[in-house]
Amino acid sequence: MKVAANFGTMFTNVPLIERYAKAAKLGFKLVEVPFPYSVDAEVLKREADKYNLKHVLINGPPGNFEAGERGLAALASEKDRFLDSLETAVKYAKVLGLTKEPSAFQVFVEHVRIAAERFAKEGIECLIEPINGYTIPGYFLNSLSQAIQVLELVNNPNLKIMFDFFHIQQISGQLTHEITKFVSKIVSQVPKRDEPHKPGEIDHAYVFNLLKQVNPNWIIGAEYVNTSETEDTVAWVKKYGLEF
């Protein structure tokens, strides 16, 4: 199984464009860029190519983050903005080479259906991610069961769940049970959210071994807050039998 550096939490002491060099220096070959939109897609692609890095995931534009928006898909009054943001996400996904990710709930399902169909036309897998309400208060999709319901209603094989260990453990616990129960519906990635080999609630050795059995082709997103920029911050990759 391979590990991707997540630029939303790693190397945040430097501008986005400089994080590619730091990831490459530590041996990463894959990167996730949650919010790439402050830099032109072509510039990011050139920087990734410079260090032989491959983009594997971006998030859709969140709207006005400073004003408290955490996505537009569940906002009935923002359909036009959502559709515009969807096209922006498609543009970035294509340039970066990401090819093969009523009530508020009703609006969310409708918008996710549109997104899944739009991305499918471009060969891009569409993902939704449940996030716990403690880390991002007000985030709409805040339970795994709700995400499963969305998948069932949209009924599109191009739509999957982004399964984040940190958030699922905070939301419901029973991490490994949820992995095995919903294996066909997910793609994969506690308290301090630091390196997986540091002390915490999750037995990562057990979890990574389970993931290898479930689907050895999954990519694990390294969405943690790195405590250093030395080889120690990626020591867990070798420790748990993973690779870059």
UniProtKB/TrEMBL annotation:
Write out the catalysed reaction: 3-hydroxypyruvate = 2-hydroxy-3-oxopropanoate
EC numbers listed for it are 5.3.1.22
Recorded GO molecular functions are:
hydroxypyruvate isomerase activity
The keyword Thylakoid is annotated on this UniProt entry: no
Coiled-coil segments, which residues?
none
Q: Which UniProt keywords apply?
A: Isomerase
Domain of life assignment? Eukaryota
Q: Where is the Xylose isomerase-like TIM barrel domain?
A: 21-239
For this entry, list what GO says about its biological process. glyoxylate metabolic process
| Residues at the catalytic site | 129, 223
For this protein, the record's InterPro entries field holds:
HyI-like, Sugar_Epim/Isomerase, Xyl_isomerase-like_sf, Xyl_isomerase-like_TIM-brl
Write down the top EC class of this protein.
Answer: isomerase
- Function recorded in the entry: Catalyzes the reversible isomerization between hydroxypyruvate and 2-hydroxy-3-oxopropanoate (also termed tartronate semialdehyde).
Record family assignment: Belongs to the hyi family.
Protein known as: Putative hydroxypyruvate isomerase
